[in-house]
Each structure stands twice: as C-alpha cells, then as structure tokens.
Amino acid sequence: MSTDLTSVLVGFARTLRNAGVQATGERVEAMVAAVAALDVTRPEDAYWAGRLTLCGEPDDLPVYDAAFAAYFGGRAPARPPASVPARRRGAALFAQDDPDGGAAGSRDDDLAVAASPAEVLRRRDLAVLSAAERDEVRRLVALLAPATAARPSRRHRPAGAGAVDPPRTVRRMLRHLGEPARLARRERRDKPRRLVLLLDVSGSMAPYADSLLRFAHAAVRRRPARTEAFTLGTRLTRVTRALRHRDPDGALRAAGEAIPDWHGGTRLADSLKAFLDRWGQRGTARGAVVVLFSDGWERGDPALLAAQMARLSRLAHRVVWVNPHRGKPGYEPLVAGMAAALPYLDDFVAGHSLAALEDLVGVISRS
Amino acid sequence: MIPATPAALADALAGVGYLADDGLATAGHLAIKLGRPLFLEGDAGVGKTAFAQALASATGAHFVRLQCYEGLDAAQALYDWDFPRQILHLRTVEAAAAAAGDKPDTAALEASLYDRRFLIARPLLQALELSPCVLLVDEIDRADDEFEAFLLEILADAAITIPELGRIAAPTPPLTVLTSNRTREVHDALKRRCLYHWVEHPSFAQEVAIIRSRLPEVTERLAADVAGAVQRMRQLDLIKAPGVAEALDWTSALAALGARELDPDLAAATLGAVLKYREDGERVKAAAPWLA
C-alpha cells in the first residue's frame, strides 16, 4: 500500500479519535490491513473497512458516519437510519457551573466548621454547606464504600460440608487407584449483585448533584465491574466509564464533560425508559439493586413514569429511591412523579446529608 | 472454496439461505481474510447467530457453538476428564491382572488413564480439533468477565495446553464469531482484537426476500404484508421490537392458518407470534388501523 494512502487513513483515525471514538493504535493497524485486504476500489469498501475495525460500540457509529462524510467528502453509502441514539460526547458541552454556588454564599464562614463538631456536619443538609464544610464532606463521601449483598452464583467452591462434589471425589479415588476415598463436598460460591445508580441531574437536584456524583464515584471505585452509573435529565447518559477514574475530581470532570444536560429540565419517564430499553431490560437491571436519586419532579405525565417504574420493579431485585427532600421535617411525597413511583419502591430514603448517605450504604448492603 | 470478495461471500451465504447486506458480507470477508474474530452486536432476533451458522455452511466449515451463561468455567467450555470411565478402565485392568495372577504396572496404568479417549472435548477444544471450523461464542456478555480473559488467551494462540496430555493446536485457527446483547460492557482488550459490526434490522425489500427464501411455500403477497407490518411495528417504540426471527415465526403461523395475505382477523389472532408483551400488543392494536 502506498504511504500516501496509509497517512490518509491514519489522519482519518486521528479525526475520529478527536471526535471521541477509541480508535487506538491496534485498531488503526487493523484498518490498514482491512483496506489492503479489500483492494479498495469503491468508497463503500473504505467505509466498511474503517467502520468494522475502528468502532467498538453502537454509540461510535453515528460519530463514524459523520467523520467519514466530513473527511472523505460525503461518500458514505446510504444505510437505513440507525436504531442507535446519537452519541452525546460530541454534542455541545455545558460548562459545569458550581452546583451550590448560590446557596453557599450566605453561610460562607470558615470559622463555623472549626467550631462545628463532626456530628453536626454529618447531619447538615448537603445543599447549604460552606466551602470548608463542603471540602470535608467531599473527603468523607469519598471514604464511603457502598457495596451490595451477595447472592449464590452458579459456580462452586470446595467446602467441608455440603453437597457431594463428584469430580473432586472421583479425582481423589483415582489418586488411590480407584479405591473409594473420603467424599469431597462443595458449596455455592457467592457473588455480589450488580448495583445500578441512576442520578437525576436536572435543575431542581442541582444542590445535591456534586455530592451524589461523588457517592456514585465511591460506588464505582468499590466494585468497578459490578456497578453502573447513569444520569437522568432530559436524556440518559452513561457515566460509568468517566467515574472509573481513580481521582474523584478527575472523575467528576470527565463525567461533567459526558453529561450534556446538567441542570436542565427533567423528563424522568423518558430517560428512565431510555435506560430500560437500552440497558435495563437487556440485563443491566436484572437481579440488580437499582438506586434512583431524584426529587421526583416530573414534567411529563406521571402515569408514564408509573409504567416505567413498574417495568423497573419487575426487572430489579430491589428498587431504592433516594429523595433529598425526604429528610426535611414535614415532607410528604406529594409531587406527582414521586407519588406515582411510590408503589414500586422497596426502600424510600433521604440522602440529603452525610449521615443519610451512610444510611443509604446500609440499605444497599442489606438488600 | 473460500469466496474471494465480499460480494462472492454474500452470494455463497444466499446459497445457504442467509441474505447478508453489504456491511455484514464485508465483515465476514474481512474476518476470514485477516483471521480476526468478528464481534456482532444488534437487537435480539436480527440474525446474529444465524449468520455464524450460515457462514459455516457457506464456507464448508464445521460449526461449533459455545453458549455463554453466568458461571461458565473451563470445565464446561474447554475440556473435562471423563472420571467415571477412567475408574471403570482402572478397575477393568486390575480385575484382568488379578485373573492372570500378576501385579499391574502402576506407572503404565496411570499413564494410560490420561489418554485422549478419556478427555471430553467441550466446544472450545472441539473448535481447535475440528478444522476448518466456525466457532460461535454466543452472548459473551452473559459469561463472567474472568472468562473473557481466558477466551482471549485461547483465541490469540489458537492452541491450549492440557497438563496431562500436552499442547493441542488447531491446524487452521477457527473463524470466531462473538455475539453480545450488551447486558454489560465487554472488556476493551477483547473488542480491540475483533472486527466490530452492529447488525441492523433488514430493509423492507431484504425482509421480503428473507421470508421468501426461508419459507418458500408462502405467497409473495403474504410475505410483503408481514414485512410491511413488522417494519411499521419497529417504528412504534415497543418494549421489544420484532426481529427477523419473529417475522418468520409470524409468517409461518399465518401460513399454518392458510392465510394468503394479512387480513385483520388473522393478524389479531396470531399477534402473539410476533409481539411478546401485553403492552406492545395493545399499543400496536391502538396505533395500527391496518390491524384492527
């Protein structure tokens, strides 16, 4: 292959990487090999060679199509409209404004925290912290380690008592040249349930968004392979990958870039439906502990939310709703969305302060 | 008889009853040519599994399927020793020796226990021993993530080492097709080694052609009616949009009732063949005057 063509392909891969597709070195090599194998004469061949090798998930496809059209002058072959929703990473990013800038102003008194005992801080509403208190709470939230309870898995492990383990028993007999030996026994190995966190990042939840995302980060860091985190607002965004960052601030920055609808409106039913269609029903929510952080403000029809909550409760092992307003004295779940969701919840908890988040860790580990 | 171009592969697949579009044919061709595994994703029922089977028949290769599930381990995926037969063998040799009145040679006896004939080949080992072969690793996302690392190792070497027997290598590496329903994210290390293809629902014309080729006994009118109805259902935002598999089921159900075209009564009576949720059935009935 000519060096010209190779450099064109490498340049294309770079464009694609900048647009957010993980077109790494190994993939680029595969594309060069694929183009060579196809003996490219038609633009369609180049299109498929690149798409098959550079993309890795359905979200990559719309980005790839756009990049291909831009780079090679709109020669992508027509194909049926993708059933895959458009990727958000390329969408206009909202600047992540300080989530509690407004509320904190009146209490911005650094001396207050020095005087306030840890217990007071633990019970203080996360929406009204001073800057110093916020730093302390952030540090403490990062120390939480939410983890789900275990359930028996299909795999076994040797045990002193339990059902007879035929392969091991027979292997023991073989070692004694076929003479019956002591019976080997086994028991089921335990496996933690999947934990799914759904965070409402709409405007009405803004004072809590930072703390809750940090809580999600702590959960993802605790069990990276068995925890999933999504944000709900006007749309659904998966932030698991962003939250896998070791450092909480880096993780939050990455998540902030991934979320296009910070502090926007709420379309809970729609984004919950998007979650169930794209992830939940396929298995992410099955048998999982699903924790929904939201105040239940729903712009749409509450009946639609109730229908989606019913679907969720049929899939999940337990559904926990965390509503920061619940911790306030005299709270009644009167908001239409909240009232519609109530019948489908296993637990309804507060999560408005550090102490409430600690309780939530308990609820998650019990379920 | 490996087809030389994507178009030739598409023809060969059509010859065994699988109509592949441009993208899928190119994906299959590149997988063969570059020797890379093919990673297929797409909605349930779009023909991912059928593609692997068709690829095997079209290229004249053996077909081995490994269905993944939670808790799948090496003994179920790779190989296992047949312990009961080993013991039986042991006892037989002992009994024969006792009858002849001499002592069995322990070392030779033990060596004879770990013979190839006492090894049960599970799908991955079968795929290495049968050559050429198409290996389908179905629903890889259901297996635990430890299994992925293990699979990656075998795919990379196209060989395994059994401590008692030695190394078993495939003369030609199996052509591997992996499918996933995205219930969890498959590790990047595995995906990077694969060609990735998202399988779409077929277009109207393609779907008619698929129904006609799989069910040659139905009328062209019925095939077109069903394909049209299924295409419209996919626009309706259902909990489970029907795939090609459901379209075929529905057509056979209608044909079994003697239908020559899709009429509203028969459609309503057989809707259970294509829609599997009560809510979906109601939504289709409400939204579709052509069914009511």
TrEMBL record, chain A:
Residues 192-358 form the VWFA domain. It comes from the Bacteria. InterPro entries: UCP010256, Uncharacterised_CoxE, VWF_A, vWFA_dom_sf. SMART domains: VWA. This is VWA domain-containing protein. It comes from Phytohabitans maris.
Automatic annotation (TrEMBL), chain B:
It comes from Phytohabitans maris. It comes from the Bacteria. SUPFAM superfamilies: P-loop containing nucleoside triphosphate hydrolases (SSF52540). InterPro entries: AAA+_ATPase, ATPase_dyneun-rel_AAA, CbbQ/NirQ/NorQ/GpvN, P-loop_NTPase. Residues 34-225 form the AAA+ ATPase domain. This is MoxR family ATPase. Pfam families: AAA_5. SMART domains: AAA.
